[in-house]
Amino acid sequence: MSARSFEFFAGDFLTYAGLENISVTRYVGDGGIDARGTLMAGRFQLPIGVQVKRYRNNVQRPDIDRFVGALSGHFSEGLFVTTANYSPSALQKATISVPHVLTLNGEQIVALMLEHRLGVITSPHNAEKLDVDGDYFAAFERMKSLWSDHINESTASYQAHVKELANDQPIDLNPGEDLIMLNTLGYALRVDPARLRRWVDDGTLTPDAVQQSGGRSSHYFRRDRIEPIRRMLHLEQRPESSAAWKQEFLDFARSKNLSKSYKPVMLKAFFLLVDREGKVRIDDLVREFRHIYVHYVEIGQPLERSSSLMVQPLEVSDQALKRLIVTHPLERFLIKNFMEYDQEQGIVQIAPHLWQELFHYEVMDVLERAEEQLRYYVSRDS
Question: The Restriction endonuclease type IV Mrr domain covers which part of the protein (predicted)?
Answer without folding.
Answer: 1-113
